[in-house]
Write a structure and sequence with these properties.
GO terms for molecular function: beta-glucosidase activity. Its EC number is 3.2.1.21. Keywords: Glycosidase, Hydrolase. One of its GO terms (biological process) is carbohydrate catabolic process. The protein is of the alpha/beta class. Strands 1-2-3-4-5-7-11-14 form an eight-stranded parallel beta barrel, surrounded by five helices. It has a four-stranded mixed β-sheet with strand order 6-8-10-9. It has a two-stranded antiparallel ribbon with strand order 12-13. The site of 6-O-phosphono-beta-D-glucopyranose has 14 residues, from loops.
Amino acid sequence: MSAFPKDFLWGAATAAYQVEGAHDVDGKGPSIWDTFSHLPGTTYQGTNGDVAVDHYHRFREDVALMAEMGMQSYRFSISWPRLLPQGRGTINEAGVKFYSDLIDALLEHNIEPMITLYHWDLPQALQDEGGWEARSTAEAFEEYASLCYQRYGDRVKLWSTFNETVCFIGFGYITGGHPPGVKNPARALQACHHVFVAHAKAVAAFRTSGIDGKIGFVNVLQTHTPLSQSAEDLAAYQLAEGIFTHWLYDPVLKGEYPAELLAQAQAVWGVPQFAPGDEQLLRDNICDFIGLNYYKRETIAANHHESHLTMNTSGEKGKGHQQGNEFGFKGLFKFVRNPNGVYTDWDWEIYPQGLTEGIMNIKARYGDIPMYITENGLGAKDPIIDGEVVDDDRIDYLRQHIGAIEDAINQGADVRGYYPWSFIDLLSWLNGFQKQYGFVYVDHNKGLARQRKKSFFWYQKLIGSNGAER
Ligand code: BG6
């Protein structure tokens, strides 16, 4: 017997740009990722999502595999420019139909859809008008969300507005590694504010739509630990908590920014600027649930130097943050390698207890909010032995993290579902196809043929026993 409740949802996740392909098919408009990934030097070896794993054309085969694995829920995102090529206005009915058919196929197999409205692929047309820095993008988002509610709300109960603000705003507007490639914290904060406004507007529209469902927000669950107990490392750690947790969760779970940090940001940069009514809008539209994406713990230390982000995108250990090459903000904090940590080949620390700790921290700060673990997984180059994909490391990783969720449930947390990243091997934004996460392998040398991995059968058993057999 496991601690998982009877109606716990065992699922898996993907995102549109990373699986669909068909980037210019059936009337889809370009997204910022279509544009960005075609610029020289932006992604690993020039990889892009033009074809990805062609889920757009193979979704029925993929849904059949989900059903065979026993999946009870599937988290996927909608490509906004597939529905609204200009971001607003004219509707592309072929795009609407694709997701409608996908939803029907899932329901025929008793798989509950969980929709993410925004997983980073903003219509390029809206970027051309200022993207998230323009308030009008928040209004366009409300229009797009309402279209999704109208067309899919009769069949879909679980919705989230945004995936991981810390990534698309942080990489998009601070480090510059994601589109639109800006490096300016003040612009980041204003863009981030418009995301919160867009979220609140979409939640308000959801509640008036009459849909019998729940709506939430998906964030990175960033568990931190200080490098040492020195006063300056502890202060750096507190600050990292404030920025990566309080700033990003409070507006959607409490309906307000953390007051002290807000005052500091406005004093230094004059942002975020609020339009009349924003405060009320945020207060009135807090989430029904929170989605947590957990991969790794971050170790935090005081920082006295300028530094820039060097990401490990090759899967060769030691190419990420390391001594003398640590990313951070001068005078605030930096991310460092934990001397006691166990790391993946991409230099991500494997720390399952961090998932328990993170869940319990969210509960402590925000009360009895329902939670879904909307992503969790191991990126690796999987070994193939005698034609079988033997991803034992992934099985170990997932097993330990499922144990960590069980611990949190035993400590009273209301966790309602688990969506490993990812259902199938897919495009990693900056790491190409070599960083595999899936239960299903895709052979790029054999016309994208699908193959079940060892973890597929392991997860199938686990689901069949509601988490007991692992
Ligand atoms: C999450 C994203 O940040 O991490 C996914 O929501 C992403 O879209 C996943 O693929 C893993 O990141 P990466 O860089 O290893 O592909």
